[in-house]
What does this fold into?
Amino acid sequence: MWHQTKVTEILGIRYPILQGPFGGNLSSTQLVAAVSEAGGLGGYGVYTNTPQEIADIDKQIRNATNKPYNLNLWVSDTDATEGTDSQYKQAVQLFGPYFEELGLPIPPKPEPYLSRFENQLQTILDIQPRVFSYMFGKLTADIIAECHRKNIITIGTATTLDEALALEATGTDLIIASGFEAGGHRPSFLDNAATSATGTFVLVQLIREKVKTPVIAAGGIATGAGIKAAMTLGAEAVQIGTAFLACEESNALPLHREMLFSEKAKYTTLTRAFSGRLGRGISNRISAATIGKEDQILPFPLQRQFMSSLRKGAIDKQKWDMLFFWGGQIAPILKHRKAAVLMEALIKEATALFTT
It folds into this structure.
Protein backbone atom coordinates (compact mmCIF):
# COMPACT_ATOMS: atom_id res chain seq x y z
CA MET A 1 0.00 0.00 0.00
CA TRP A 2 1.22 3.50 -0.88
CA HIS A 3 0.72 4.77 2.65
CA GLN A 4 2.92 2.16 4.33
CA THR A 5 6.37 3.76 4.37
CA LYS A 6 9.42 4.03 6.60
CA VAL A 7 8.06 7.34 7.89
CA THR A 8 4.68 5.93 8.91
CA GLU A 9 6.45 3.01 10.56
CA ILE A 10 8.81 5.25 12.53
CA LEU A 11 6.12 7.75 13.56
CA GLY A 12 3.42 5.18 14.24
CA ILE A 13 0.86 6.89 12.00
CA ARG A 14 -1.45 5.47 9.35
CA TYR A 15 -0.84 7.91 6.50
CA PRO A 16 2.40 9.67 5.46
CA ILE A 17 0.88 13.13 5.79
CA LEU A 18 2.28 15.67 8.25
CA GLN A 19 0.62 18.99 9.06
CA GLY A 20 3.06 21.88 9.02
CA PRO A 21 3.70 23.17 12.57
CA PHE A 22 2.86 26.88 12.39
CA GLY A 23 4.50 29.37 14.71
CA GLY A 24 3.38 32.87 15.62
CA ASN A 25 0.14 31.72 17.28
CA LEU A 26 -1.19 30.18 14.04
CA SER A 27 -1.23 26.62 15.35
CA SER A 28 -4.10 25.23 17.39
CA THR A 29 -4.84 22.18 19.49
CA GLN A 30 -7.97 21.56 17.41
CA LEU A 31 -6.02 21.39 14.15
CA VAL A 32 -3.32 19.12 15.59
CA ALA A 33 -5.93 16.74 16.99
CA ALA A 34 -7.99 16.70 13.78
CA VAL A 35 -5.01 15.71 11.63
CA SER A 36 -3.67 13.14 14.09
CA GLU A 37 -7.11 11.60 14.62
CA ALA A 38 -7.46 11.26 10.82
CA GLY A 39 -4.29 9.19 10.66
CA GLY A 40 -1.71 11.88 9.88
CA LEU A 41 0.69 13.73 12.17
CA GLY A 42 -0.56 17.02 13.59
CA GLY A 43 2.06 19.65 14.39
CA TYR A 44 2.27 22.68 16.70
CA GLY A 45 4.93 25.39 16.39
CA VAL A 46 6.02 26.53 19.86
CA TYR A 47 9.13 28.62 19.16
CA THR A 48 7.46 31.81 20.45
CA ASN A 49 6.16 30.16 23.63
CA THR A 50 7.64 30.08 27.11
CA PRO A 51 8.56 26.73 28.67
CA GLN A 52 5.41 26.81 30.82
CA GLU A 53 3.26 27.62 27.80
CA ILE A 54 4.83 24.71 25.91
CA ALA A 55 4.02 22.35 28.78
CA ASP A 56 0.43 23.65 28.86
CA ILE A 57 0.02 23.26 25.09
CA ASP A 58 1.37 19.72 25.28
CA LYS A 59 -1.15 18.87 28.00
CA GLN A 60 -4.01 20.29 25.92
CA ILE A 61 -3.00 18.22 22.90
CA ARG A 62 -2.72 15.05 24.99
CA ASN A 63 -6.24 15.70 26.29
CA ALA A 64 -7.52 16.12 22.71
CA THR A 65 -5.93 13.05 21.11
CA ASN A 66 -4.04 9.91 22.07
CA LYS A 67 -2.42 9.74 18.63
CA PRO A 68 1.17 10.86 17.84
CA TYR A 69 1.73 14.59 17.31
CA ASN A 70 4.69 16.89 16.72
CA LEU A 71 6.06 19.92 18.61
CA ASN A 72 8.38 22.21 16.66
CA LEU A 73 11.17 24.59 17.76
CA TRP A 74 13.68 26.87 16.08
CA VAL A 75 17.26 25.92 16.97
CA SER A 76 18.49 29.39 16.05
CA ASP A 77 15.82 31.80 17.28
CA THR A 78 17.77 35.02 16.82
CA ASP A 79 20.00 36.55 14.14
CA ALA A 80 21.10 39.38 16.43
CA THR A 81 20.57 39.97 20.14
CA GLU A 82 20.36 43.73 19.62
CA GLY A 83 20.37 46.20 16.75
CA THR A 84 22.60 49.19 16.19
CA ASP A 85 21.40 52.79 16.28
CA SER A 86 22.11 53.01 12.55
CA GLN A 87 19.95 49.96 11.78
CA TYR A 88 17.12 51.37 13.87
CA LYS A 89 17.26 54.76 12.12
CA GLN A 90 17.11 53.08 8.72
CA ALA A 91 14.11 50.98 9.77
CA VAL A 92 12.34 54.10 11.02
CA GLN A 93 13.01 55.84 7.72
CA LEU A 94 11.63 52.90 5.71
CA PHE A 95 8.63 51.95 7.83
CA GLY A 96 7.85 55.21 9.61
CA PRO A 97 5.29 56.40 7.01
CA TYR A 98 3.13 53.31 7.64
CA PHE A 99 3.02 53.99 11.39
CA GLU A 100 2.16 57.61 10.69
CA GLU A 101 -0.62 56.59 8.30
CA LEU A 102 -2.20 54.55 11.10
CA GLY A 103 -1.71 57.34 13.62
CA LEU A 104 0.71 55.22 15.63
CA PRO A 105 3.86 56.39 17.41
CA ILE A 106 7.16 55.16 15.98
CA PRO A 107 8.22 52.17 18.13
CA PRO A 108 11.30 52.63 20.29
CA LYS A 109 14.46 50.74 19.42
CA PRO A 110 13.76 47.04 20.20
CA GLU A 111 15.10 45.78 23.51
CA PRO A 112 17.95 43.25 23.46
CA TYR A 113 16.66 39.73 22.79
CA LEU A 114 17.80 36.61 24.63
CA SER A 115 17.46 33.18 23.05
CA ARG A 116 14.81 30.92 24.55
CA PHE A 117 15.90 27.74 22.83
CA GLU A 118 17.91 26.15 25.62
CA ASN A 119 15.04 26.39 28.11
CA GLN A 120 12.47 25.39 25.50
CA LEU A 121 14.54 22.34 24.58
CA GLN A 122 14.71 21.26 28.21
CA THR A 123 10.92 21.43 28.35
CA ILE A 124 10.69 19.19 25.27
CA LEU A 125 12.98 16.67 26.95
CA ASP A 126 10.89 16.85 30.13
CA ILE A 127 7.44 16.42 28.57
CA GLN A 128 8.63 13.87 25.98
CA PRO A 129 6.29 14.34 23.02
CA ARG A 130 6.21 11.47 20.55
CA VAL A 131 7.79 13.68 17.88
CA PHE A 132 10.04 16.73 18.10
CA SER A 133 10.83 18.61 14.89
CA TYR A 134 13.25 21.48 14.59
CA MET A 135 14.39 24.00 12.01
CA PHE A 136 16.92 26.81 11.48
CA GLY A 137 19.76 24.58 12.55
CA LYS A 138 20.86 21.17 13.69
CA LEU A 139 20.95 19.54 17.10
CA THR A 140 24.13 18.08 18.50
CA ALA A 141 24.58 14.32 18.41
CA ASP A 142 24.37 14.33 22.23
CA ILE A 143 20.94 16.01 22.18
CA ILE A 144 19.71 13.59 19.51
CA ALA A 145 20.94 10.71 21.66
CA GLU A 146 19.11 12.14 24.69
CA CYS A 147 15.91 12.38 22.65
CA HIS A 148 16.31 8.76 21.63
CA ARG A 149 16.83 7.73 25.25
CA LYS A 150 13.50 9.39 26.01
CA ASN A 151 11.81 7.76 22.98
CA ILE A 152 11.38 11.10 21.21
CA ILE A 153 11.52 10.89 17.41
CA THR A 154 13.47 13.78 15.85
CA ILE A 155 12.82 15.51 12.53
CA GLY A 156 15.23 18.09 11.11
CA THR A 157 14.52 20.53 8.27
CA ALA A 158 16.79 21.14 5.27
CA THR A 159 16.58 23.60 2.39
CA THR A 160 19.72 22.30 0.65
CA LEU A 161 21.55 19.02 0.16
CA ASP A 162 24.40 20.24 2.39
CA GLU A 163 21.94 20.89 5.21
CA ALA A 164 20.45 17.40 4.80
CA LEU A 165 23.93 15.87 5.01
CA ALA A 166 24.65 17.89 8.15
CA LEU A 167 21.38 16.73 9.74
CA GLU A 168 22.04 13.11 8.90
CA ALA A 169 25.51 13.30 10.45
CA THR A 170 23.96 14.11 13.85
CA GLY A 171 21.63 11.10 13.76
CA THR A 172 18.25 12.79 13.31
CA ASP A 173 15.54 10.25 12.49
CA LEU A 174 13.82 12.00 9.57
CA ILE A 175 14.60 14.94 7.29
CA ILE A 176 12.12 17.42 5.82
CA ALA A 177 13.13 18.69 2.38
CA SER A 178 11.64 22.20 2.41
CA GLY A 179 11.33 23.72 -1.06
CA PHE A 180 11.16 27.43 -1.78
CA GLU A 181 7.49 27.12 -2.84
CA ALA A 182 6.48 26.69 0.80
CA GLY A 183 4.73 29.39 2.79
CA GLY A 184 6.24 30.79 5.98
CA HIS A 185 9.88 31.28 6.86
CA ARG A 186 12.72 29.74 4.85
CA PRO A 187 14.52 27.66 7.51
CA SER A 188 18.00 27.73 5.95
CA PHE A 189 20.93 27.46 8.35
CA LEU A 190 24.18 26.80 6.44
CA ASP A 191 23.87 29.51 3.81
CA ASN A 192 21.85 32.63 3.12
CA ALA A 193 18.15 31.84 2.77
CA ALA A 194 17.90 33.85 -0.44
CA THR A 195 20.52 31.65 -2.11
CA SER A 196 19.10 28.40 -0.71
CA ALA A 197 16.11 28.46 -3.05
CA THR A 198 15.82 24.95 -4.44
CA GLY A 199 12.36 23.72 -5.44
CA THR A 200 10.79 20.85 -3.51
CA PHE A 201 10.92 18.17 -6.19
CA VAL A 202 14.53 18.90 -7.14
CA LEU A 203 15.54 19.00 -3.47
CA VAL A 204 13.86 15.65 -2.73
CA GLN A 205 15.79 14.01 -5.56
CA LEU A 206 19.11 15.54 -4.52
CA ILE A 207 18.70 14.43 -0.92
CA ARG A 208 17.48 10.93 -1.77
CA GLU A 209 20.53 10.43 -3.97
CA LYS A 210 23.01 11.18 -1.17
CA VAL A 211 21.20 10.63 2.14
CA LYS A 212 19.95 7.38 3.70
CA THR A 213 17.67 9.03 6.27
CA PRO A 214 13.99 8.96 5.16
CA VAL A 215 12.89 12.18 3.47
CA ILE A 216 9.64 14.14 3.91
CA ALA A 217 8.76 16.53 1.06
CA ALA A 218 7.42 19.98 1.98
CA GLY A 219 6.41 22.91 -0.20
CA GLY A 220 3.90 23.11 -3.04
CA ILE A 221 1.86 20.06 -2.00
CA ALA A 222 -1.88 20.25 -1.32
CA THR A 223 -3.47 17.36 -3.26
CA GLY A 224 -3.22 13.62 -3.76
CA ALA A 225 -1.41 14.32 -7.04
CA GLY A 226 1.23 16.26 -5.14
CA ILE A 227 1.62 13.41 -2.68
CA LYS A 228 2.10 10.88 -5.48
CA ALA A 229 4.59 13.11 -7.29
CA ALA A 230 6.67 13.61 -4.16
CA MET A 231 6.68 9.93 -3.24
CA THR A 232 7.44 8.88 -6.83
CA LEU A 233 10.59 10.99 -6.61
CA GLY A 234 11.69 9.31 -3.39
CA ALA A 235 9.93 11.01 -0.49
CA GLU A 236 8.56 8.70 2.19
CA ALA A 237 5.97 11.25 3.33
CA VAL A 238 4.82 14.83 2.76
CA GLN A 239 4.37 17.83 5.02
CA ILE A 240 1.49 20.13 4.07
CA GLY A 241 1.29 23.65 5.46
CA THR A 242 -0.77 26.18 3.52
CA ALA A 243 -3.74 23.85 2.90
CA PHE A 244 -4.05 23.14 6.64
CA LEU A 245 -3.45 26.79 7.57
CA ALA A 246 -6.53 27.64 5.47
CA CYS A 247 -8.72 25.23 7.46
CA GLU A 248 -11.19 26.55 10.04
CA GLU A 249 -9.39 24.71 12.85
CA SER A 250 -6.18 26.71 12.45
CA ASN A 251 -5.66 29.79 14.60
CA ALA A 252 -5.20 32.08 11.59
CA LEU A 253 -7.44 35.14 11.42
CA PRO A 254 -10.65 34.49 9.45
CA LEU A 255 -9.45 37.10 6.96
CA HIS A 256 -6.13 35.26 6.59
CA ARG A 257 -7.95 32.07 5.73
CA GLU A 258 -10.18 33.90 3.26
CA MET A 259 -7.15 35.50 1.62
CA LEU A 260 -5.72 32.04 0.95
CA PHE A 261 -8.87 31.23 -1.05
CA SER A 262 -8.93 34.61 -2.83
CA GLU A 263 -7.52 35.82 -6.13
CA LYS A 264 -4.76 37.57 -4.19
CA ALA A 265 -3.31 34.17 -3.25
CA LYS A 266 -1.94 33.91 -6.80
CA TYR A 267 0.69 36.48 -5.86
CA THR A 268 3.16 35.53 -3.16
CA THR A 269 6.54 36.94 -2.34
CA LEU A 270 9.59 36.23 -0.21
CA THR A 271 10.31 39.15 2.13
CA ARG A 272 12.14 40.04 5.34
CA ALA A 273 10.01 43.12 5.98
CA PHE A 274 7.75 41.68 8.66
CA SER A 275 10.03 39.54 10.81
CA GLY A 276 13.62 40.11 9.74
CA ARG A 277 13.90 36.61 8.27
CA LEU A 278 13.00 35.64 4.74
CA GLY A 279 9.50 34.18 4.47
CA ARG A 280 6.78 33.64 1.87
CA GLY A 281 3.32 35.11 2.06
CA ILE A 282 0.71 36.94 0.00
CA SER A 283 2.17 40.10 -1.55
CA ASN A 284 1.02 43.44 -0.16
CA ARG A 285 1.95 47.10 -0.45
CA ILE A 286 4.69 46.91 2.20
CA SER A 287 6.36 43.82 0.76
CA ALA A 288 6.31 45.46 -2.67
CA ALA A 289 7.70 48.79 -1.43
CA THR A 290 10.60 47.18 0.45
CA ILE A 291 12.00 45.10 -2.41
CA GLY A 292 15.71 45.85 -2.74
CA LYS A 293 15.85 47.60 0.64
CA GLU A 294 17.08 44.69 2.74
CA ASP A 295 19.76 46.84 4.37
CA GLN A 296 17.05 48.98 6.02
CA ILE A 297 15.36 46.05 7.77
CA LEU A 298 16.29 45.05 11.30
CA PRO A 299 17.57 41.51 11.92
CA PHE A 300 15.29 38.79 13.31
CA PRO A 301 13.57 38.93 15.77
CA LEU A 302 14.09 42.67 16.28
CA GLN A 303 12.17 43.50 13.09
CA ARG A 304 9.25 41.38 14.31
CA GLN A 305 9.24 43.32 17.61
CA PHE A 306 9.46 46.62 15.73
CA MET A 307 6.50 45.74 13.46
CA SER A 308 4.23 44.24 16.13
CA SER A 309 2.31 47.45 16.90
CA LEU A 310 1.88 48.13 13.17
CA ARG A 311 0.24 44.73 12.73
CA LYS A 312 -2.11 45.36 15.66
CA GLY A 313 -2.95 48.83 14.40
CA ALA A 314 -3.62 47.57 10.87
CA ILE A 315 -6.01 44.94 12.25
CA ASP A 316 -7.79 47.49 14.46
CA LYS A 317 -8.25 49.91 11.54
CA GLN A 318 -8.85 47.18 8.95
CA LYS A 319 -5.92 48.25 6.80
CA TRP A 320 -5.64 44.80 5.26
CA ASP A 321 -3.08 45.87 2.64
CA MET A 322 -0.57 46.42 5.46
CA LEU A 323 -0.94 42.90 6.86
CA PHE A 324 1.28 40.07 5.65
CA PHE A 325 -0.57 36.78 5.37
CA TRP A 326 1.72 33.74 5.31
CA GLY A 327 1.03 31.30 2.49
CA GLY A 328 2.71 29.18 -0.16
CA GLN A 329 2.60 29.20 -3.94
CA ILE A 330 0.09 26.31 -3.99
CA ALA A 331 -2.72 28.38 -2.41
CA PRO A 332 -4.67 29.07 -5.65
CA ILE A 333 -5.73 25.41 -5.89
CA LEU A 334 -7.00 25.06 -2.31
CA LYS A 335 -10.54 23.69 -1.97
CA HIS A 336 -11.18 22.42 1.55
CA ARG A 337 -11.95 24.39 4.72
CA LYS A 338 -12.18 21.56 7.25
CA ALA A 339 -9.11 19.57 8.32
CA ALA A 340 -10.92 16.22 8.41
CA VAL A 341 -12.38 16.85 4.94
CA LEU A 342 -8.95 17.84 3.62
CA MET A 343 -7.38 14.69 5.06
CA GLU A 344 -10.14 12.54 3.57
CA ALA A 345 -9.63 14.13 0.15
CA LEU A 346 -5.85 13.75 0.26
CA ILE A 347 -6.12 10.07 1.16
CA LYS A 348 -8.83 9.35 -1.40
CA GLU A 349 -7.03 11.15 -4.22
CA ALA A 350 -3.67 9.57 -3.47
CA THR A 351 -5.17 6.10 -3.18
CA ALA A 352 -6.90 6.45 -6.55
CA LEU A 353 -3.72 7.66 -8.24
CA PHE A 354 -1.51 4.95 -6.75
CA THR A 355 -3.92 2.19 -7.78
CA THR A 356 -4.39 3.19 -11.43
User: Anything to note?
Assistant: The chain is about 40% helix and 15% strand.
